[in-house]
Amino acid sequence: MEYTTLGNTGMEVSRLCLGCMSFGSSDWREWVLKESESTEIIERAIDLGINFFDTANMYSRGESERILGDALAEFDYRDAAVVATKTYFQMRDDDPNSGGLSRKAIEQELAASRERLGVDAIDLYQIHRWDDDTPIETTMRALDDAVRRGHVRYVGASSMWAHQFAESLYASDRLGLDRFVTMQNHYNLVYREEEREMLPLCAKENVGVLPWSPLARGYLTRPHEDIDATTRGKTEEYLYDHPYREGGGPEINERVAELAAEKGVTMAQISLAWLLHKDWVDAPIIGTTSVEHLEQAVEALDISLSASDMAYLEEPYEPVPVSGHS
């Protein structure tokens, strides 16, 4: 395993972060794994040297956090792990204040996440989206208070417009509050709109970058004509609503398949290797439903792509509508 310093935090994290969205209950999403299968993947991740885990309170309505916390305790890895979780989406249908980024929402949902994870302090607490109904100063003060109480070590953000992220950093600096140290954004070979503003901003501010959906919801793992035959392809509305299939998407998919065959590796490994070659990426967040795919993801660290390989994969890309901000 390779390790890197996460932004300017000083924390050393594995170059791959295990995303835990697929752990919890199939009642929430059809492709989500039950606890025993989830724990097996977490155990193998630890064996492979992964020390960075990302979840969210809304994943299986808290079950993902509980499963991760229980597994880290079982394998005596709670202190060694760098644990990240997120808040924003409404957790209970009958409680509108269980979502959003008000002080009440942040304080009560943070307490619930800490309990499910079984930790005194969450290493990286992230806002899952931007809240138009709450002034950013209110949100940043609540997060800063959580850091000062020792309930959170660092705070981060997820998909939003670059001007909103800049506004949040400015508010923190102006008020003397802890600022966001990471950006978890939507970035992969077939969605590169973040290269226009968000990624240069993160590089300038020394903010760690943790791309989500590095394999484009599975679109970059197999020939595009085969996607619809998978469980996720049949049930994931995102694959139909998102313009992965528009513009240069199909040709990029074909070039990934071609380069994978040439190098004797999988399409997923080529797609991950491309991200790992990007200087502004700290750790892609990889979600998986099998130990085999996890092991293949770790092997992608050893794949070397030349400048001509990178250019060949990128050349067909065409601008697509911005997404992932809501």
TrEMBL record:
Any GO MF annotation of the entry: oxidoreductase activity
CDD domains: AKR_EcYajO-like
Protein name, UniProt field: Aldo/keto reductase
Gene3D superfamilies: NADP-dependent oxidoreductase domain (3.20.20.100)
Keyword Oxidoreductase among record annotations: yes
Keywords: Oxidoreductase
GO CC annotation terms, alphabetical: cytosol
Keyword set includes Zinc: no
Pfam family, one: Aldo_ket_red
NADP-dependent oxidoreductase domain residues: 15-315
PANTHER family: NAD(P)-LINKED OXIDOREDUCTASE SUPERFAMILY PROTEIN, NADH-SPECIFIC METHYLGLYOXAL REDUCTASE-RELATED
